[in-house]
Amino acid sequence: FMKLLKMTNFNGLSGHIEFDATSGFRSNVTLAIVDKTKTGVDLVGYWRELNAKKSIEIVRSYAKEKDQILDKLNRNLIVTTKLV
Predict the structure, then answer these.
(1) What is the pTM for the complete model shown?
(2) 3-state secondary structure (DSSP) of residue 6
(3) Which of 41, 59, 61, 76 gives 34 a disulfide partner, CB atoms 3.0 to 4.6 angstroms apart?
């Protein structure tokens, strides 16, 4: 089963899904970075594994939200990942 899975690629809910043929880990990963708001979630940008020098691409304009950003600077950000 794993041999067949490593050769598979398809589009899923989180975008294009592809696996490394040797390790079986997901490769070419792009994840959406979102901000939780009172009305739901807003897209902030994308994290891509492909480009190590610029792996985060911010697409949201913060020019209109200066006060909200200053408020968020006084908070801690916890990022958790797990590689299996």
Answers:
(1) 0.50
(2) helix
(3) 41
How far CA 72 is from CA of 48, 59, 63, 69, 77, in Å, comes to: 24, 18, 15, 5, 9
Distance CA 36, CA 39 (A): 8
Structure tokens at 40: 């739901």
- Res 64 pLDDT > 70: no
Judged by DSSP in three states, 43 sits in strand
Q: Whole-angstrom Cα distance, residue 55 to residue 31?
A: 10
Which residue, chain included where needed, has tokens 């985060």? 56
**In angstroms, rounded to a whole number, what is the distance separating the alpha carbons of residues 11 and 18?**
9
Examine the pLDDT at 44 and tell me if it is beyond 80. yes
Please give the backbone phi and psi of residue 51, each rounded to the nearest 5 degrees, phi first: -110, 105
How far apart, in whole angstroms, are the C-alpha atoms of residue 73 and residue 4?
A: 46
